[in-house]
Inverse folding.
């Protein structure tokens, strides 16, 4: 049976499930420009609203990054939209004004993505190939929507290497709920305790814990590393035999 190893611990599993943003690709490089575009499009020239909405969503405008484990960093577009709408409702905006703001925000996100190119955190295709040659099956579980996720995998040239891809639009309850991991287990005919989840956020760890799946955190000092089964500085520290 295949064994997946980190520098500190090994796992006897048959499936490795990867998060996407912050695990395979640089989170801030991919998501800060769209997140800033979202905030700017909603707030327009209202500096006070810009600052309040950025803090609520977890967009660090001064540091040009996303706050770790914040709504913007780890949640879904639906959640981001709901939080934005709640903020605007509290300010007395009408439903029509809110809907128009969300349309502007979505367009700004699309423009930011069109001009962005993901920054890999490791040689992902080579790592995937190594794990597959060791007898493992691979899956992806992300809070991103399905369309952008598949486009990313095609750009990476790794879509064909994955046995399952589950996104926020494929399930009723995305991470931190365990639904995605349970769906992957059912699709691949395995059990939760035979899977290893690799992720950088608390949501990843919570989903793994709720499903009964092993969890390795990316980032030794990240909040996700607390109570993780092991941690790595980068996914290229994973090996298998």
């Amino acid at each position: 049976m295949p064994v997946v190893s980190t520098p500190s611990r090994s796992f006897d599993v048959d499936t490795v499930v990867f998060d996407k943003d912050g695990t395979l690709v640089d989170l801030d490089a991919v998501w800060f420009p769209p997140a800033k575009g979202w905030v700017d499009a909603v707030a327009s020239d209202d500096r006070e609203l810009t600052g309040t909405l950025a803090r609520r969503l977890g967009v660090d405008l001064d540091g040009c990054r996303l706050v770790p484990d914040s709504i913007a960093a780890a949640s879904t577009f639906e959640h981001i939209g709901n939080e934005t709408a709640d903020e605007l409702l509290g300010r007395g905006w009408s439903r029509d004004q809110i809907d128009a703001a969300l349309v502007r925000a979505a367009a700004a996100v699309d423009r930011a993505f069109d001009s962005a190119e993901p920054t890999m955190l490791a040689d992902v295709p080579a790592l995937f190939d190594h794990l597959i040659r060791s007898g493992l099956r691979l899956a992806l579980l992300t809070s991103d929507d399905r369309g952008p996720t598949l486009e990313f995998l095609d750009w990476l040239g790794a879509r064909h290497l994955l046995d399952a891809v589950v996104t926020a639009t494929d399930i009723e309850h995305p991470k931190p709920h365990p639904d995605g991991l349970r769906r992957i287990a059912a699709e691949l005919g395995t059990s939760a305790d035979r899977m290893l989840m690799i992720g950088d956020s608390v949501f990843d760890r919570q989903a793994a814990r709720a499903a009964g799946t092993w969890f390795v955190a990316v980032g030794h000092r990240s909040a996700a590393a607390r109570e993780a089964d092991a941690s790595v500085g980068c996914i290229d520290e994973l090996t298998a035999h």
The chain has two domains: 3-26+119-240, 28-114. Residues 95-114 form the longest helix (20 residues). The first strand starts at residue 3 and ends at 5. The chain has a mean pLDDT of 95.
